[in-house]
Amino acid sequence: MSGPVTALEPQAIFALDYASEVGRIAAALRHALAHDLNRRGLVVAISGGIDSSVSAALAVAAVGPRRVLGLLLPERVTAPESTARGRALAAHLGIEHRVEDIAPALEALGCYRSQDEVCHAVCPQYGPGWRYKIVIAGGLEGRYNHFRIVMRSPAGELSEARLELRHYLQMVAATNFKQRVRKTLEYYHADRLNYAVVGTPNRLEYDQGFFVKNGDGAADIKPIAHLYKTQVYALARHLGLPEAICNAVPTTDTYSLPQGQDEFYFGLPYPQMDLALWAYEHGEPPDRLAASLGIPTAAAQAIYHDIEAKRRVARYLHAAAIRC
Amino acid sequence: MVVDEQVQQYILENFLFSTDRSLLGPEDSFLERGLIDSTGMLEVILYLEETFGIQVADEEMIPANLDSVRRIAEYVHRKLS
Q1: Measured between CB atoms, does B61 come within 8 Å of chain A?
Q2: pTM of the entire structure?
Q3: Phi, psi of A132 (to 5 degrees)
Q4: Across the interface, do A137 and B42 touch by the CB < 8 Å criterion?
């Protein structure tokens, strides 16, 4: 006879010897630079969020501040506090940093115009002063994932609609300019200095495909792609990063309305998503995840299906060019 | 052409780049076979709406309605009846 289902214990699951982990990652970065990449230092694009901040700190732990360049690459909708946190981090780490506004490049490429076309098509009243964001829907309710656009008029009225396929694809294509322009600049500076580019995805992002192919997904080395977000936050505290960064809420900083990463892509706040991915990877039955998150078993099963669905999408994102 | 044949032909031509009907059985799960991801399913939904003049509601975007040629055909028949 089986007993009651016990809940998972996140504290035990995500426990890590952070001092050893910092040493191990730093050694791996040095080894890669010396033996695989043959580069003399590291470029890190700093968003002001937790992942890029920890990655930059690890880069400094590996090769020292003089061999790390931080890039702050804001555009029209970047929150000023993100750039402020990025500057504070660079000062804290003692690294050289540059702030390059990528809005003119995005303007020239038609990024904003293409996004505005979609907004006009969805809402003919759209114009100056309107704000919007894209949110994911469906997967956690057992449906196919799709995206909805949330718009706010200058008067503060909110409206929401399902994005039809061509509008969704155009919005994604236009928005991906942002990550790809940033990556172009990262590699410009990496080539100029003979440095390597650090990619900053955490395990959730890497596993579930929360990145742009040949955009933020492109890098020479990814020091935290094996760490759950919970562990990245803990690592930030271990590394003594500024409090504003340790407490930063994960956002996309990509659309004109404030947007959490959970509503844009994961569907769950990161502590729950971490636990769900861990449970899925370790073959835990849905009822145990359900007991851990305080949700019905069917909802936990839907989370597992959603993880699988996003992995299918991620397969294309991870794929290198295929030689025929 | 009946609905299931139309849908099968659409999936074959647009997702498998083939006209070989032996490649896709009526009960084959698109998910289990890895044929159609979530963006691909949005394409299928647009095709159904444009071809059969139906509206697929958010709550109807579920594998029970859309995860095989047979399921889609039955779903379309229900919507049209």
Answers
A1: yes
A2: 0.92
A3: -155, 165
A4: no
In terms of Cβ atoms closer than 10 Å to its own Cβ (0-12, 13-18, 19+), residue A256 is middle
pLDDT of A265-304, one tens digit each?
777 889 999 999 999 999 999 999 999 999 999 999 989 9
Q: How many residues does chain A have?
A: 324
What does the pLDDT look like over A227-277, one tens digit per residue?
999 999 999 999 999 999 998 887 778 888 877 766 667 778 899 999 999
Name A286's Cβ contacts closer than 8 Å, sequence gap at least 6.
Answer: A297, A300, A301, A303, A304
Number of folded domains that form chain A: 1
Domain annotation covers residue A115: no
CATH number at residue B68: 1.10.1200.10
Phi, psi of A308 (to 5 degrees): -65, -40
Query: Per the CB < 8 Å rule, is B59 touching A164?
Result: no
Residue A149 inside a domain? The answer is no
ipTM of the complex: 0.87
Give helix A111-122 / helix A165-193 axis angle, nearest 10°.
Answer: 160
**Intra-chain end-to-end CA distance of chain B, in Å:** 18
**Residue in the block written with tokens 């083939």:** B18
pLDDT at site A67 = 98
Q: What is the CATH number of the domain that holds A30?
A: 3.40.50.620
- Both tokens of residue A277? 């991915």
Which structural domain range is residue B10 located in? 3-80
Closest to A197 (Cα-Cα) out of A27, A28, A34, A37: A37
**CA contacts within 13 A on the Cβ side of A290:** 14
Which residues of chain A are within 8 Å of residue B68 when distances are taken between CB atoms? none
Range of the domain at A90: 15-108+170-318
Interface of A with B in 104-143 (CB under 8 A): 137-139, 142-143
What average pLDDT does the segment A6-22 reach? 96
